[in-house]
Design goal:
Blueprint (H helix, E strand, L loop, with lengths): L4 E9 L7 H19 L3 E8 L4 H9 L4 H18 L6 E4 L3 H16 L3 E11 L4 E3 L18 E10 L1 H14 L4 E2 L1 H12 L5 E2 L1 E2 L6 E2 L7 E2 L1 H6 L12 H7 L4 E5 L3 H15 L7 E4 L2 E3 L2 E2 L10 H8 L1 H11 L6 E2 L2 H31 L14 H16 L3 H22 L1 H4 L6 H22 L4 H10 L39
Parallel strand pairs: 1-2, 1-12, 2-3, 7-13, 12-13, 14-16
Antiparallel strand pairs: 4-5, 4-6, 6-8, 9-11, 10-11, 14-15
Helix pairs in contact: 2-3, 5-6, 5-9, 10-11, 11-14, 12-14, 12-16, 13-14, 13-16, 14-16, 16-17
The chain binds 5'-O-[(L-methionyl)-sulphamoyl]adenosine.
The site of 5'-O-[(L-methionyl)-sulphamoyl]adenosine has 20 residues, from strand 1, helix 1, helix 7 and strand 12.
Length: about 500
């Protein structure tokens, strides 16, 4: 039987600057969900990419004396390098500058224009001539001038294409109201409902003032403008227009994971575009919160950005992933703080998890020459707690309660450490009559570690693999399934485990 499909996306990132830890947050969550879904038997397609067009990029490239594509190529390489270092398991990386994407966008534009939902009109906005930029009233500075160069703006009109959003507003509103799972969390849903109820204007979808973009078919002085070009990236890699079978398999997307400030584009504009095309809407758009530094959104202009590459160099990808997934409740804003990160590494990773593995393997090596021996049933066991944890974990992960799932696994890790203290295997080892009790305790611990390694594999894939290696079951790592965690007792009698190696060094503050 073929596996059920699961299509998950991150936003495509602007290559205007280096990515910061806030971007890494979004991609880490998506990666964790993708890995979890693969583990539970889905055929996952996980997409990320880059959103490369626009006046800003064109201008920055010109200022550097290079072409826009030369400029973005370098930055996009750095994105790919970051995702590689962070262990992101995306199945494709879409660049909006790629020919495969141009073809899709132009065809979509043509289809919607042919049915009369894209029309030519006049765009009027507040224009800053030196910056060659349009601004809206609210973007202007406190003197009503250009927010970039602070010179006066003037009202200017240019010919442009418009998309009839107004035609689809009621249908999108009804969709949001009728399908509570379409837009989460609930707070964002209410915001969007109120937004649409205030009335939707038609959307300007082309510009003539720059040319770094996808030309409007049959009217090439226009380029297709931002969201129309960007959102359609979700259709390009899954075969829209060129592979009907693949498209039918992955669309509608199961999850568009996006930051809260772009929920509006992903529900309202995207909803209208898809309705105009007669395509189903995605099953879910989830608006996550921001990673903030002392309450402030990270941004280059505020000078408070944290470079994920440096953090990975210093602490390892898994430590960063752990911190982001554990500390920030999905849907809410969360604080990034270096001291808190170090504290989590020392307490949760080096102490709780690291010690559990180290103590367990050490004792198996010391008391049973590295061998697991045949346990019997009638002693105190970790079995029930392990299996309850697995069950609860699944429910939390299915509900996207990722930080709760991480905490749950750590609760079980704490329980295992306490089990060592309670059963005191070093005392059992001294008493010949307690031989079976010792066998049982060590088996239960090894088996619990095997299950823990499976449960943390979506969060910390490298650490999970390293535990498998130390348990000497690495040959099963690539084929493991969630079902392997649902059985307590898979490690075989006489299985020989490895020597303990440190998982996470303690960080001196
Ligand atoms: N290019 C558009 C998205 C188009 S999707 C069809 C864009 N790019 S972005 O690079 O500015 O942002 C990409 C994502 O990063 C957004 O979801 C945004 O919310 C997220 N983040 C940017 N800064 C962030 C934090 N400080 N914290 C969490 N996420 C953040 O928008």
């Amino acid at each position: 039987m073929s596996k059920p499909a699961y299509y998950i996306t991150t936003p495509i990132y602007y290559p205007s600057a280096k990515l910061h830890i806030g971007h890494a947050y979004c991609t880490t969550i998506a990666d964790t969900i993708a890995r979890y879904k693969r583990l539970t038997g889905y055929d996952v397609f996980f997409l990320t990419g880059s959103d490369e067009h626009g006046q800003k990029i064109q201008r920055t490239a010109e200022a550097q004396g290079i072409t826009p594509i030369e400029y973005v190529d370098k930055i996009v390489d750095s994105f790919k390098e970051l995702w590689r270092r962070l262990n992101i398991s995306n199945d494709d990386f879409i660049r909006t500058s790629e020919p495969r994407h141009h073809e899709v966008v132009q065809e979509i534009f043509r289809r919607i224009r042919d049915k009369g939902d894209i029309y030519k009109g006049e765009y009027t906005g507040l224009y800053c001539t030196p910056c060659e930029s349009y601004w809206t009233e609210i973007q202007l500075d406190e003197n009503g001038c250009c927010p970039d160069c602070h010179r006066p703006v003037e009202k200017v009109s240019e010919e442009a294409y418009f998309f009839k959003m107004s035609k689809y507003a009621d249908a999108v509103l009804k969709h949001i109201e009728d399908n509570p799972e379409f837009l989460e969390p609930k707070s964002r849903r209410n915001e969007m409902i109120n937004f649409i109820k205030q009335g939707l204007e038609d959307l300007c979808v082309s510009r003539t003032s720059f040319n770094w973009g996808i030309p409007v078919p049959d009217d090439e002085k226009h380029v297709i403008y931002v969201w129309f070009d960007a959102l359609t990236n979700y259709l390009t890699p899954i075969g829209y227009l060129d592979d009907a079978e693949k498209f039918a398999k992955y669309w509608p997307a199961d999850l568009h994971l996006v930051g809260k400030e772009i929920v509006r584009f992903h529900t309202i504009i995207w909803g209208c575009i898809l309705m105009a095309l007669g395509i189903e809407l995605p099953k879910k758009v989830y608006g996550h919160g921001w990673l903030v530094i002392s309450g402030d959104k990270m941004s280059k202009s505020k000078g408070n950005v944290v470079d994920p590459m440096l953090l990975i160099d210093e602490f390892s990808a898994d430590a960063i992933r752990y911190f982001l997934l554990r500390e920030i409740v999905l849907g809410q804003d969360g604080n990034f703080n270096r001291d808190a990160l170090i504290q989590r590494i020392n307490a949760d990773l080096a102490n709780d998890l690291g010690n559990l593995l180290h103590r367990t393997l050490n004792m198996i090596n010391k008391f049973q020459k590295g061998s697991l021996l045949e346990p019997n049933e009638d002693t105190v066991s970790l079995k029930t707690e392990a299996l309850d944890t697995v069950k609860e974990y699944r429910a939390l992960m299915d509900n996207l309660q990722i930080s709760d799932a991480v905490k749950l696994v750590w609760k079980f890790i704490t329980r295992c450490n306490k089990y060592i203290d309670e059963t005191a295997p070093w005392k059992l080892a001294k008493d010949e009559t307690q031989k079976q009790a010792l066998i049982n305790v060590l088996y239960n611990l090894a088996e619990s570690l095997r299950i823990i390694a499976i449960l943390i594999s979506p969060f910390m894939p490298t650490t999970s693999r390293r535990i498998f290696e130390q348990l000497k079951i690495a040959q099963n790592f690539d084929t493991m399934q969630f079902a392997d965690a649902e059985i307590f007792g898979k490690l075989e009698n006489n299985h020989v485990v490895g020597k303990p190696e440190q998982l996470f060094p303690r960080i001196e503050i």
